[in-house]
Amino acid sequence: MYRLAMENGLRGWVRNTNEGLTIFLEGAPGSLKNFRSDLNHRSPEASSITGIIIEDVKPEGFSGFEIRSSLNLSDEITEISPDIAVCAACLNDMKTQQHRIDYPLINCTHCGPRFTIIKDLPYDRPNTTMDNFPMCATCTSEYEHILDRRFHAQPVACNRCGPAYELWKKGRAVPGSLSEIVREAAEEIRRGGIVALKGVGGFHLVCDAGNQDAVLSLRKRKGRESKPLAVMFRDVEQAGQVVRISPVEERALISWRRPIVLLQQSDGFSSHLAPALNEGLATLGVLLPYMPFHYLLMEHLEIPAVVLTSGNFSEQPILIENNQAINQFGRVADLVITHQREIYNRVDDSVVRQMGDQERLFRRARGFCPDPLPVTLPVNGILAMGAELVNSFCIGKGNRAYLSQYIGDLKNPPTQEFYRDTIDRFRKLFRIEPTVIVTDLHPEYYSTKSGRELKLILEHTGKQITMEEVQHHHAHIAACMAEHHLDEQVIGVAFDGTGLGSDGHSWGSEIMLADLERFQRISHFEYLLMPGGDKVVEQPWRMALSALYHTYGEKVRKLNLPFMLRIPEEEREWILQMLCKRVNTPLTCGAGRYFDAVAAMLNLCLRSGYEGEGPMKLEALTTEGITGCYPVEHQEAISFVPVFRMIAQEISLGVQPEQIATKFHNTVITAIIQTVLVIRKEHGLERVVLSGGVFQNRYLVEHLVMQLEKEKFNVYLHAVVPPNDGGVSLGQLVIAAKRRAI
Ligand code: ZN
Ligand code: ZN
Ligand code: FE
After folding, report:
1. The model's pTM
2. 79-163 against 528-664: fold identical
3. How many Å apart are CA 727 and CA 507, to the nearest integer?
4. Distance 212 CA to ligand 2 centre (A)
């Protein structure tokens, strides 16, 4: 503001308050107009102006322009910025500024770490992890000079005063300059080795993305057998050799948030990259450099791309601590590269995918967190614990929902600890004392248990806590409604793998009437047996057998489909016995389980190496232009018996799997359309809200939305909140807020 005021020859003052910025300006009308237009056109890339209120005032005759000290007007807190990718000006400074030549922790007001280094508010250097690096005289003068790009940039540092990079080999420090470290890393990658590299929000493991052996060895050492790996390219042009990039996707790739973007691979993939990156899939997670070190590394490499995958073990949180990384990556990586800037708040890379004409978030973390989401209801003091897998929690302040970063699957103690710690930190950072705690219906979720435990702890200190329970799929729909500021009755379509239903069974193909207070289940897919309970998630072939048993009864033995022959007879027979006798066979109607079943029938995925492998491989086979579908039966629930029968027949006849996969997708779409048309007739609702992990499937979403719009429905999809369980906590939050308000 100061700079713009000076340039336009305006007088007056500017003041930061926790409710926004106030500017008092005096000057010629033309200059005021220019200033106003500069606000729109010259604001920093990472800034966003949510609203401007202009009032006429009496001139007071100022002689200059000044910055007045901040005012605290209320309990509202100043926003914390997400971490910002390094800017072009800083990259240039790194080549030209004497004290920052090759200094890779360079940053300015427009870029650099934020959320990851903040320990407390206000956002001042002593409250960040840069507190133990006093600025040198040069940095101080830049920091204090109002016309400098580093004016009040808290993490400002240089070669002389800032944290440095360090190289470790077999647990020992290897002394060397930064350029030596970069060269060593490049050399190791070129040789097919693996490098552990500290980033903004945690460590990554890096190797040559074109070297099949390196990728396989990374998988083996990390214990990540088949889950797809993200790849970092030097620039958009290089990425364009192996994936297709639309204008929307390009904007996402180069945005200051710098997420991983899921892109459709093109023919060039096989000649440039290792097939082991994403076996059986047609998409690749792509990102561009966002730290100066990434750029330096890319400069030293001739290869087009490196794998850049989270530095963690078997579903645990990414490592952030230097000593831990040096010890634990000793077995995994040939080199470990650390830096001395401590990571306080851990964040993974975010993941987005274009569906329709918009970019949509699948994993909300670096670059997005902790941006609050504005909500219409007051959510103050509500803490929503989230679900179990790909967990996030959400905490309310005023009319803002603070959705935590992606926490992960609450299945191992380190992730559970990360979860508890982050809740504590959010409470402290945003100064929120919970008075309402919301959990899922599922009593065994770690999030549910933690919520109940926290209630006891808080009550022990004399506080009054209200507990609220929200059904999983209702929460999904409410999350999407909150994103679009809907507070009315809608048709909700919540499709995912699992979630405890009000009848005690596992749900996940819910078509409901819903508002923010409650829901009424209208239809769903028919229940199928889950032989061995949760085991079916790892072994989708069991769901295939269950679906076929549901269709053929004991005659299923005569089918002899190729996938059945790949299962040892003894194992197959054992599962069939379970199904016949109904021993250990809980019920599910999860659409994800239906996708699993068909993926296994098609022999795509009998045993699943990661969440959603079967459905993702099924989606990979979908082909535009195949329009047929199978008939479902709308009874009390939607029956897929005729669908499974026809699929089994077509497999026996040798019909192309692309045909079957696409027709199955079309079938699910048709079943939804038929159901919502009936609901509209009866209830007169026009708004259809889609949520749940199944709606990460691009083919499904785009075709479903197209057909719904053809029927003149208003369709609501997630954009800035993940459709998967990473968004559930926001839904829990607004439902609790609504119930409280009534
Ligand atoms: Zn910068
Ligand atoms: Zn310095
Ligand atoms: Fe879910």
Report:
1. 0.96
2. no
3. 17
4. 42
